[in-house]
Amino acid sequence: MRLLAWGRLPPLSEVANPKGDGVWRRSAWHMGLALAGLSYLLLLTNLESTWNGIYISQSSWGLTWLVTPLTLTIIASRNREGKENKQKISVLVVILAQFLALTLPGTRLIGLAVGTAVMFVNTRYLKDRKYAVITVGFGLSLIAAAVWESVSLSYAGWFVLTAIIILCLWLIRKLLQRGNELASIYAVATDFWASTLCGIELLLLSIHAISIYLFAESNILLCAISAVIILVALSFRHFYEFTNWTFYGIGWSVELLELYLIEILEFGVYEVTNDGSPQLIYLAIANICLGLITQLIGEWLQSKHYSGKLPNRWHILPLLYAGFGVLLRWSIFDSWTGLSTLAVAWIVISIGRRNLKLKPLLYLGLFGVSIAAYELLIYQLTQASGGAVGDGWIILATLATFIAYGYRLLSRWLTSYLKLSSQELKIFAHFHWALGSVLLIATLGNPVEAYKLALATGLLLSCYAIFQGRDSNQLLSQPNSRNITEADIWVYIGLIQIAVFRYFIPPASIVSVFFQQIRPWIAGVSCIVGYFVYILPWERWGWRKKPWQVTAYILPLFYLWETRIQIYSISLLLVAAYYIFIAKITTKFRFTYISLALANWVLWRWFIDLNLTDALWYISSVGLSLLYIAQFDPQLKLPQHKAYRHGLRIFASGMICGYATVFHQNQFWIPGILSLIAIFTGLGLRIRAFLYIGTATFLITAFYHLVIFTLDYPFLKWVIGLLVGITLIFIAANFESRRQQLNSLLSNINSEFKEWE
Predict the structure, then answer these.
(1) pLDDT in tens, 113-164
(2) Distance between CA atoms of residues 496 and 469, nearest Å
């Protein structure tokens, strides 16, 4: 009856009528499938009762259902009609059959063996990769089940067994690649399972490595052997066919092997320090060393085999090793951490210089070199004792200065090695110069003992800026430009730094004592320095002359301000003469204004020394200075500025005469003399402003004293009134007869006034 259901014997109707439509045969096929499904459900129910502990002896009945996939495979191999569908059903059935056998001891081996044989036959006819993958999976499951039931292995033993299986699978793949189509299909299947198992193995080994860190696991040696076998297998696979995943798998295996070897050698990678934190020093160093090794191998491959076009995996793997090493030593700060950072920076630089697209890594690596240098220095500073707070800042600034000079002095070699332009390299040098300047300025508010080092560093920083302003190309392109150029700004900054960093001169040094002794004369001496700064051939030496000229202008003023309390009057006069000289050689008259202000300063000091406390002396010096400006300023001499010149003269002379008129009326001879001086000066120089102010001052003074005089002597008041009346009558009597003469006189005076200044 079972044979009839499975189509082994044809129905009687088909025997009687061989040319029939096969209805009975198809019906038997469907009925056979239905009965097979029903029997599977019954056996599965029996299996569930066994799982509940009813009785285990009934488990062997599940093996009887293996007849179903065997029968389907035989039918599919003998009949051509619907052959492919029947084989696919056979594949499905053999997979379902494993659920009846795998969970029961003693039967799983038979089920897996039958499944392997059935799938091998089906794959032979179907010739599809996915069925080959299932076939190899059945075979691997059969091996695992056999080992499970016959040998008691630890988890580390399973790691080793899996690694051996992976290696064997790739060896089989290599042998099958030389065969026919079916062998090629199985080669793909073996490669799939080897790759899958390799990934799972590496993942589990990684978890085991972490468990060592957390729980101090054992069986490290067997795990290390597994890592070695995996490394050999991946190397074998990668040797015959380069792929990214095998390359990174090799790197992963090396990382695991390194970890296990360090622990086997008892370097204490996972020991705990006194503060309770894990000590990962050796592992961090080992990872950085791996990064260096892979980077060097990449350099060699690029020069020998890849003609400058190295695959990206050779860029990424060293960075992964280095990054993992940095991550492991993140919270560690010791004498070697700076060296490790330097090694990582060199890895990043070497990778960044391989390709223009990787240039950001090059920049990052250069900053890493600076960080490494500061790590080494800061560690030494933390170990040192004594010294002032500012000394640490000075030492840090000195390091930044040396790095900046290193970039500039080694510029030719660095541009060739790093494949950077000189302008890009200058950016890094400028950054460290700015860092050194900021750090050195930060020391000004802290106690300092290393004055000499600070002074030397400050001079180096200033010289860096000044020589950065030495630009022959810009000098040739803009020799007489009045605009401030970048080179000019550098020179200004360097000179300002000299002015700031001179405060680091040791207080007890000979230089400091000497400057204290000549402090009242420093402003005058600075005029000599300013003169030489002005006349030196800066353009011939490569600098633009303008910033040095500006320095020559400002230098005496700077020292005037610094020594304003102790400065001698002779020094002030020397500075005043210096600015007169500067005004003459530069044809810039307004430099004499500085000399004028200094002359007033000297005069005021002289007035104070002579105990001349009357404000008229000081106001007169200011007024005369303003009159000097109105008389000699080239801009005020222009015709369009005539009104401004006249107004300034009115203001200056009015300030002097007005103050004398208001505050010195009791001493009439003072405003009287000043008014007469103004009148005669106006007449002599033909200047209306002086004449107006002098006449007004004289009349106000005369009228004031006349009123006072008449108040003191009443009789004279009547005499003066009588004389004034007679005079007015005389003028009225002769006015008509003298009208023409008066008109002519006034007209001539008006015409002549128009020609006056």
Answers:
(1) 888 888 888 788 778 888 889 889 989 988 998 888 888 888 889 999 999 9
(2) 13
Q: Strand, coil or helix: what is 272? A: strand
Extract the tokens encoding 285: 């160093």
- Which residues touch 615 (CB under 8 Å, ≥6 apart)? 659, 663
Residue 564 is predicted with a pLDDT of 86
C-alpha distances out from residue 182 to 124, 131, 474, 675, Å: 7, 11, 76, 130
> Residue 152, class by beta-carbon neighbours within 10 Å (0-12 exposed, 13-18 middle, 19+ buried)?
exposed
Compute the C-alpha angle 181/185/189, nearest 5°: 165
User: Which three-class secondary structure state does DSSP give residue 278?
Assistant: strand
Spans of the chain, pLDDT less than 70: 1-64, 76-87, 102-106, 214-218, 266-279, 307-308, 386, 472-482, 508, 511, 705, 708-725, 727-757
Specify the amino acid at residue 130. Answer: K
| DSSP string for 501-549 | HGGGS-TTSHHHHHHHHTGGGHHHHHHHHHHHHHHS-HHHHTS-HHHHH
Q: Pull the structure tokens for residue 173.
A: 């793949």
pLDDT for position 329: 84
The dihedrals phi and psi of 135, each to the nearest 5 degrees, come to -60, -50
Rounded to 5°, angle at Cα 752 from 750 and 757: 105
SS (H, E, C) 652-699: HHHHHHHHHHHHCCCCCHHHHHHHHHHHHHHHHHCCHHHHHHHHHHHH
Can you read off the two tokens belonging to residue 212? 């060592």
Tell me phi and psi for residue 398, to 5 degrees.
-65, -40
The reported pLDDT for the residue numbered 96 is 75
Place of tokens 């920049």: 363
d(CA 593, CA 32): 123
- In angstroms, rounded to a whole number, what is the distance separating the alpha carbons of residues 650 and 682? 12
**H or E element at residue 129:** helix 129-150
Question: 414, 425 in Cβ contact below 8 A?
Answer: yes
Nearest to 242 by CA among 292, 299, 314, 166: 314
Angle at 24 between CA 19 and CA 29, to 5 degrees: 120
Per-residue pLDDT tens over the stretch 634-648 = 888 888 888 888 889
pLDDT, position 334: 82
